[in-house]
Amino acid sequence: MMKFAGNVNLIYGMSFLKLKDLPANLVVLLAFFIPTSTTLTYVPVLGILVFWFFGGHRQDKIRWYFNYPLSMPILFLTFIYLAGIVYTSAEWKYCFSSLRDIFRFCCIPIFAYYLHLSDPAKKEYALKFFIAAMLLTCALGMLKILGSLPIGEKHSGSGIFKSHIKTSYFMAIALFFIFVNFYYQRKHQALNLILISVLLFYMFYLNTGRTGYLILLASFSVFAWYQFRLKGLVILGVIFSVLLAAAYFTSEVFATRINELHSELLFYLQGTTVSSLGARLEFAVNSFMIFLQRPFFGFGTGSFMGIYEATYAGQEMLLTDNPHNEYLKIMVEFGVFGLIALLWFFVRAWQAMLKLPVPTKILALGILFSFIVGCLFNSWINDFTESHFVCLMLAIFVSGDQKTTLKPPCFLHGGKISLNPTRP
């Protein structure tokens, strides 16, 4: 799928060992570790932070941080989390857990800083490392399911390194990336088409996570809109409907998951919430009712689980530590102001990505929009894996302010995907 010039490979291989390139290389490794290992994800993150705080050039770093396009919404969101400690009723351990979650997003400008200082090709390598991780996951998943090998036994269904839900999310993103690569690049079309076919087979015949189907639709909707506008959305709807219908009648795994979804919806309408869908719908309704009690400032940092249990304990309802909806969770804890802060962060990221050339813009916005949609059904700001992933993607696609940099790197430009970028 991807071609490299020999001299670039040689230079990259040598620079990987240089100390000055180590922070950027850690960011590259992070792209492989996030979808494969929680423990190993900590290693590059901690290494990057060590370089940031103890690596010198403090004035340059401060200037970069406060001029970075996403810094203000990130700092405002962090301020709201810190202010929420003042009036929360939650135990300190839950407060610290919430602060840790939002502090992850404070790393976005730091990741972007080291990617910018290094060779522009590092951004491309980071994406390739992510794709490599997902192709490895796909191969092991096939061996687990089709070959009945004892692989990834810790996770049910198609899960290997992560749960089947997280795996389906990452697999859908990988499929979208390869499709964008296939659509805009003239080379390696056959290999890209093979990879797309393999990942589609995995998604609809082996995958047991329904989240991946939603992410596929969300990401490809961005492509359809920016490439063909309303006509593209109509065509996508037709293609997706045909694909789902074909999968339903030919894939036992997919049909089972869709039938379960239908049954869960019927049970919920009949008043039974003991199901995945039923529980999520109940959590959403209950969380919104709690939000109405304190709509402006909420109940404070880390308070969701405590206030939910205090409100519904003793009733015939499932209790939860999160509503499986990031927007409702932040509304309960921080009210309307918290929701505004989160939406400002998303809008600012979207605006920054709109300035990218078309191929890069479609890929970046597809990933961002998928995360925004996914937050309707998951509390992804608080989920370790998904939040680290979106932080890394934002660092890759959102460049720093022109005033604080020389020439912001771009590896996708000129109406096609540049797989062997050079500095402009």
Describe this structure in words.
- The protein has helices spanning 6-15, 22-33, 38-54, 58-67, 71-87, 92-105, 108-117, 121-145, 164-184, 189-206, 211-250, 252-269, 276-291, 304-312, 326-354, 358-374, 384-397, and strands at residues 412-413, 416-417.
- The protein is mostly helical.
- A hairpin with a 2-residue loop joins strand 1 (412-413) and strand 2 (416-417).
- Helix 5 (71-87) packs antiparallel against helix 6 (92-105) and helix 16 packs antiparallel against helix 17 (384-397).
- It has a two-stranded antiparallel ribbon.
- The radius of gyration is 22 Å and the shape is globular.
- The two termini are 24 Å apart.
- It is 70% helix and 1% strand.
- Mean pLDDT is 89; it is low at 1-16 and 402-424.
- It contains 17 helices and 2 strands.
Relevant terms:
1% strand
Spell out the blueprint of helices and strands:
Layout: H1 6-15, H2 22-33, H3 38-54, H4 58-67, H5 71-87, H6 92-105, H7 108-117, H8 121-145, H9 164-184, H10 189-206, H11 211-250, H12 252-269, H13 276-291, H14 304-312, H15 326-354, H16 358-374, H17 384-397, E1 412-413, E2 416-417
Antiparallel strand pairs: 1-2
